[in-house]
Amino acid sequence: MKTKEIKTKRSGNKITDWNDHLDKKYGKVGTVKRTEFESKAQAFVIGELLKEERGKANLTQEALAEKTGTKKSYISRIENGRADIQLSTLFKLVEQGLNRKLELYIR
Q: Domain for residue 92, yes or no?
């Protein structure tokens, strides 16, 4: 695969791929700063997926909270990537609240 070289407007630095960009901005994989970034990015992704599936189910945050015994404010924090969610809660929201199947993969 051919990688495009991108020249950033602000600094004029050349970035060859996304990982190169993340290395420059947050440090190499395994550093504290990079791990924090990746954790926040994953929380954002989970929140966006939950929001999208909740929309497909035609449920409000309040309705999802009622179905799962949680609070609307907690659903909001998850959807905005500002909550540390336990797997048991994620399963409950998806499977009980949205009537969907959740599968996790480790690569």
A: yes
